[in-house]
Amino acid sequence: MWDFYDKLINEVPDVGTVDFIHAGETWTMVSAGSYCGIAITVNEQNQPIGDYSYLLGKPLKDVAALCKSWDFGQASVGTAALNAWLNSPEHLKQLDCRDTTNGFDDYRQKAAGKKVAIIGHFVHLERFLTESQVYVLERRPKPGDYPDSACEYILPEVDYTFITGSAFINKTLPRLLQLSKNAVVLGPSTPMSSVLFAYGAKELSGFSPDPVMKKNAAAIGRDEVRFKDYGRRICVSV
Fold first, then answer.
1. Given this model, what pLDDT does residue 222 score?
2. Longest dimension (CA), the chain
């Protein structure tokens, strides 16, 4: 499984050192000069938000390697650093990306009449898929949800699987891709790389931040800023 992460980390070139880190309760941001990345703050271990100032001045690639950490707060920082390069306009030139405003409308059409699995209540995506048979799989299931252990049984049987990019941070993404027929990885945490296609993803829907976004890091950390005002929503298919 580590090959998956190592291939992504090895895509990061020597583009400078980390000069800004903000870890909020909802979002984590990392920048190195003109490169800026974001990832959701995963805190399944319910730990206090860490102080990552000791990483300032380190090469972006070295910080990106922390995406392999089992300390998920640290892994969130690593993923944001990874995305600073992978989701940058410079790297995205290598992908046939398109801008998207509301990809959920596209998914509603694609999945109409199909069986669909959603990993977690990702912005309550299920409310958009009214014409699909939807299975929501949750680590902490609510009434009507399936436990995440049901992935091994349900995902091979559905037509589409929608996976939040946070699965990359908690290390479940490689296995989820193996189990899925048509996997869509989505959300600002999604690393925009063709490596994910090699491991089974069919579509990536992510976010490319504008570097000025870090000026609003405190508000972003509290989930108070509309993403569309500070970057591009982007999508690419295999």
1. 65
2. 51
Cβ pair 202, 237 in contact under 8 A: yes
> Residue 113: exposed, middle, or buried by beta-carbon count in 10 A (0-12, 13-18, 19+)?
exposed
Cα 174 from Cα 183, distance rounded (Å): 11
- For residue 220, the cross-strand partners are none
Closest alpha carbon to 205 in 216, 217, 191:
191
Lowest average pLDDT, out of 43-52, 78-87, 197-206, goes to 43-52
Q: pTM here?
A: 0.92
Helices 72-86 and 2-9 meet at what angle, rounded to 10? 50
- Structure confidence by residue, pLDDT tens digits, 59-102: 999 999 999 999 999 999 999 999 999 999 999 998 988 888 76
Residue 14 backbone dihedrals phi, psi, to 5 degrees: -80, 95
> Phi and psi at residue 30, in whole multiples of 5°?
-140, 140
CA distance 177 to 105: 23
Task: Let me know: does 198 contact 177? Beta carbons within 8 Å.
Answer: no
Alpha-carbon gap, residue 155 to 176, rounded angstroms: 8
Give the separation between CA 163 and CA 58, rounded to whole angstroms.
31
What is the H or E stretch that residue 176 is in? helix 173-179
Find where tokens 């405003």 sit: 101
**Cβ atoms of 79 and 189 closer than 8 Å:** yes
Tokens of 57: 């001045």
